[in-house]
Amino acid sequence: MSVPDARAIEFGCAPKRGPTFVRGSVATLWDEDGNEYIDCGASFGVGNLGHCNPAIVEAIQAQARELIHIGPVFGTTAKATFVEKLLSVAPRNLGRVFLSNSGSEAVEAAIKFARASTRRKKIIAAMRGFHGRTMGALSATWRKDFREPFEPLVPGFEHVPFNDIEALQKAVDHDTAAVILEAVQGEGGVHVASPEYLPAAREACDRTGALLILDEVQTGMGRTGRLFAVERWGVEPDLLTLAKSLAGGVPIGATLATEDVERAFQGSHNSTFGGNPLACAAATAAIGYTVRERLWERADHLGTIGVEKLRGLEAPSVREVRGLGLMIGIELRGKAAPVLQAMQEEGVLAIGGGSSVVRLLPPLVIPEDQWSSALDVLGRTLSHG
Ligand SMILES: *Cc1c(COP(=O)(O)O)cnc(C)c1O
């Protein structure tokens, strides 16, 4: 039963590679020809709970029978339940939530909230950082090839080298509305913030009255071995963005803020689909499952196994293995694309991070033997490369 290849008529710049998928379960994917793959990144960091997690499926089915959509100015029990649940697990200083539909939208909201509450213009972001593709989020994103064709972007953005405390201190001044950072740069190739970097960013913001935005779109929901990566650094952001795995695979974005930020905010911002009951019900189930199963501990455990195994390879094609929890980057001396292709042919799907990094973002629920097989495939590929 073959379907026409939609990729031929889709407008989009995502590199198209290989299979068309029909089904997924936990960490396994099947394509239309019945081939089986281990997913170590195909869902781009969305799949923390695995494909078609029954807890999510049931929540969606139950909610779909009750109410699928109501506009954002009205309350729903699905939204109220989710918001309360999210705030109960989020960093305690964050008491307000704005809901949207994607990571980029969560970042857009954070940027808008920062500007409209500080009434300042400047936003400091990091080189190699990634915050999304809409114009505001893109202005905070670093990669030239993502930015250039769309210039002029939003004015007022400045980039500083990641993990360079002095450069950050110099850049943040009394015109700075916000500093936006990832605790672990994902798209940029899995670069982990040093233990001192985020506290120093907090301090620079406090000194000048700027806000600290932590973009946890990729690092949130257990991915790095904590429910939120920021827990490892012990800083309190003013704004925190979530998306990707937050609703177990259903599109959602969330921008968390302190009550102070909300109090100072003057303006309006909204989203038609933001906080829609279906996404909220899925997200409530996703948080419930993550907390019940303590998935961040699995991420920590499996991530440690993975990094040790990959470092032990001592393959000449590997420059460095980096990671935090189940967010792992293997920096190669050459291009990542041929390695990704070779792995795919062996039934393991991973993604790139920059041009020379193989990035692994497997579901946190991946069975240990499957994780081990995937690492073996990667190891063999690297040793032959
Ligand atoms: C993926 C990502 C985004 C953008 O999310 P979309 O849902 O693709 O808009 C923003 N920030 C970070 C850190 C991301 O990893």
> How are the strands ordered across the major sheet?
4-12-11-10-7-5-6
Number of helices: 12
Low-pLDDT segments:
none
Q: What share of residues are in beta strands?
A: 15-25%
**Count of individual domains:** 2
Secondary-structure element series = EEEHHEHEHHEHEEEHEEEHHHEEHEEEH
Distance separating the two termini: 36 Å
Query: What is the C-level CATH assignment of the largest domain?
Result: Alpha Beta
Bound heterogens, unique: pyridoxal-5'-phosphate
The backbone outline, from C-alpha atoms, is: globular
Gyration radius (Cα, Å) is: 20 Å
**Secondary structure category:** alpha/beta
Mean pLDDT: 95
CATH hierarchy: architecture of the largest domain: 3-Layer(aba) Sandwich
Number of strands: 17
Largest sheet: 7 strands, mixed
Q: Specify the helix fraction band.
A: 25-40%
CATH topology (fold) name of the largest domain: Aspartate Aminotransferase, domain 2
SSE diagram, text form:
Layout: E1 21-25, E2 28-31, E3 36-39, H1 54-66, H2 77-89, E4 96-100, H3 103-118, E5 122-126, H4 135-140, H5 144-147, E6 157-160, H6 165-171, E7 176-181, E8 184-185, E9 191-192, H7 197-208, E10 211-215, E11 239-242, E12 253-257, H8 259-264, H9 277-292, H10 295-313, E13 318-324, E14 327-332, H11 337-345, E15 348-349, E16 351-352, E17 357-360, H12 368-384
Parallel strand pairs: 3-15, 5-6, 5-7, 7-10, 10-11
Antiparallel strand pairs: 1-2, 2-3, 4-12, 8-9, 11-12, 13-14, 14-17, 16-17
Helix pairs in contact: 1-9, 2-9, 10-12
The protein binds pyridoxal-5'-phosphate (PLP).
